[in-house]
Specification:
It is built from nine helices and two strands. By secondary structure, the protein is mainly α. It has a two-stranded antiparallel ribbon with strand order 1-2. It starts with 7 loop residues before the first helix and ends in a 6-residue tail after the last helix.
């Protein structure tokens, strides 16, 4: 498909259409999910649930749908079979967990949005590897404590590099705060007063006092 430039108004219409279509689709999924729960409770039939799960493809919140089905129906995900299987609560977890499709339970299931059964993952930039690095360091440190790390030098290099990066990020943040504080300082303040209040502000934000003074010293203070 070749690229064709769209006018902004046409693009906005397309985006609105996508939003409306997704809203409609979410409502259809809700109706189908409630029916799937009904069949799993009343007829021990989990086929509609599996079909609905498969129908979502890879572009929808399949994790939330699965959580909804497991929460309200006689269903569970099988890791070995990689599909939804029948889960008889009464036999497996005891008679007190038996599900009955009463009018009250039907209202409860219908009133619970399927998409809210599990929180959506937080957006994450492809450029943000901070979490992976921290997990890697934590894993390596655990292995090192057990004597399972052969190359301690690699761990030291990664850990030191990460710590330096964090210090650089902190410095950048503190420098930005200091620059803004100096810019917004009371015009009646003397250079010494601006210096003292800016350093104090950085210290109150968690910056070491000596480091705060070094950062403020870099900034030209004008009376």
């Amino acid at each position: 498909m070749s690229f064709v430039k769209m006018e902004v108004s046409a693009l906005n219409d397309l985006i609105v259409g996508i939003r409306n279509a997704l809203t409609k689709t979410a409502g259809m999924i809700q109706a189908a999910a409630v029916q799937a729960v009904f069949y799993s409770v009343v007829d021990s039939n989990i086929t509609p649930a599996q079909q609905l799960y498969d129908a979502l493809g890879s572009e929808s919140r399949k994790d939330a749908l699965l959580a909804f089905l497991e929460q309200f129906g006689n269903m569970a995900w099988s890791k070995t079979e990689k599909k939804i299987v029948f889960f008889d609560r009464e036999k497996i977890t005891g008679p007190t967990t038996k599900l009955e499709w009463t009018p009250e339970y039907a209202d409860k299931v219908a009133g619970a949005p399927w998409s809210a059964a599990k929180a959506a993952p937080a957006p994450k930039s492809m450029y943000d590897c901070d979490e992976e690095v921290r997990k890697f360091i934590a894993t390596m440190e655990k292995q090192a404590a057990k004597g399972g790390v052969k190359n301690h030098h690699m761990l030291d290099v990664v850990r030191n590099a990460y710590n330096r990066e964090q210090l650089n990020l902190q410095d950048a943040m503190f420098a930005g705060l200091a620059a803004r504080a100096v810019e917004d300082a009371d015009p009646g303040y003397s250079e010494e007063k601006v210096y003292e209040t800016t350093v104090g502000m950085l210290v109150s934000r968690g910056c070491d006092k000596d480091r705060a003074e070094e950062i403020v010293d870099r900034i030209k203070i004008v009376d």
